[in-house]
Amino acid sequence: MGMNRMTSDALAEQAVLRIAPNVYDAEPIPEAARAEIERLLASGDLFRYTAPEGAPVARLEAEFADYMGVRYALAVSSCSAALFLALKALDLPRGAKVLIPAFTFAAVPSAVVHADCEPVLVEVGDDLRIDLADFRAKLDGAAAVLISHMRGHTSDMDAIMAECDARGIPLVEDAAHSLGTLWSGKKIGTLGKIGCFSFQSYKLVNAGEGGMFVTDDPEIAARAVIMSGAYEHNWKKHPGLQNSFHHWQNRLPLYNMRMQNLSAAVIRPQIPLIDSRVQAGRSNHDYVAGRLNGSPWMQVPPSLPQETRAPDSLQFNLTGTWSDDEARAFQTAAAARGISVQVFGLSRDNARAFWNWQFLGALPDLPKTRAMLMRACDLRLPARLVRDELDMIATALIEAAGEVKGG
Fold this sequence. Notes:
single chain; 14 helices; 7-stranded mixed sheet; alpha/beta; globular; Aspartate Aminotransferase, domain 2; 2 domains; about 400 residues; 4-stranded antiparallel sheet; Aspartate Aminotransferase, domain 1
């Protein structure tokens, strides 16, 4: 009888796992990309500078710039590469202080270190946004500000830009999680001096890897193009900026962070799909958020009034009094129902927990950010999910919290 019970429980668990939605599959590659991929593979023409003009990477840059409403777009190997190039294109002195949120991905402080600058970590509150009091306290003496719209949560950009503008400090936007997000009707990534985007598989546009650097500043654009790897006279295959290119020729190091044509061929057919994916992702997010906010144990941080989000994931806080053991039990109870949810600070070696950035050396005491990370939960929520799948996710999380906390 004991064996039968164990078998029954095991089968029940397997059944749950079978019907649980798979939230880890990336966005599918459109069929329209396949013919261009086959053509490129047949030709072997994968390097962006082989063709005299009209290479897939060059076309992607023009299309992305048009979509974003910016003057210049540069396709690179990753968002991390774009962030690094942004800091180098600003011509910051060695050891310059760059403010970044203490809640971001490890690649962000890494990019600052690679650029020979010093990251200054700013507190983040339980709304997952920059703590403005700490930001203002640390801003004097900074050479640049790099704002991560982490997991698509936009900090108060009006206040941040006003403080930067008053001091003449350039602002770089890490918009890896915010393609399609609007701030007072303007696209995130176009508010600061430079915007950086990601096409890694878990982002709204899926190329496996890849990034984009955008700006309206011609000198910054020219410097970034050359440093990205436009060696000798390959910069002639970028439109405009010829005088600036001539000026910077041989005066800048080359970091070889170019995108190759296969990646561009995968990305280009997805650009027209961004808006529909954003709409579906927002609808999914708001539906699940509404259900979770009905629980006494969970709360989804609301959008700011100026913010129209483009989420492909959902974050919520465990509210009330939770011990670490209870938070871990919640993760386990959700997993037993087929739903994988992480508490940022309780996930071992999580690259979003600042205390794991040991490559920075001595780390500051950031009590607000630490407290937030110990109770903030992270859940993949792709735009492709349908209502039944969303209900299963929400129900599993509500039941898991109830199992741990009672009721």
